[in-house]
Amino acid sequence: MDASARVTSKGQVTIPKAVRDALALETGDRVVFRVEQHRAIMARTPDLLELAGTVEVPAAKRGADWGEVRLAARNRWAHRAR
Questions:
Q1: DSSP 54
Q2: 72: part of which helix (H) or strand (E)?
Q3: Which of 12, 27, 42, 62 is 20 to 30 A from 73 via CA?
Q4: What pLDDT band is residue 19 in, cutting at 50, 70 and 90?
């Protein structure tokens, strides 16, 4: 589907109704833009609360301090980059 819209002087664009319908966008939904070379791709961002419970957490990791989890992940990422 192709749809066009005009950019206002404030850089705003109204998402055409056909696109809103295709993405099931509603008032208050968030979207993300990704620029790839000379084009932008817009996508509906997922509601992260809808994802709750979809990833199994090992028993040993449940209740872990979030700061410690982030630090451990950052350290693992740093070791891979070397």
A1: S
A2: helix 66-81
A3: 42
A4: very high
For the segment 34-56, the average pLDDT, to the nearest whole number, is 83
* Residue for token pair 């109704």: 17
pTM to 2 decimal places: 0.53
Contact 13, 6 (CB under 8 A): yes
State which of 21-25, 58-62, 66-70 shows the largest mean pLDDT.
21-25
Structural domain includes residue 5: yes
C-alpha closest to that of 4 among 23, 17, 25: 17
Taking the mean position of all CA atoms in its chain, how far away is CA 30?
8
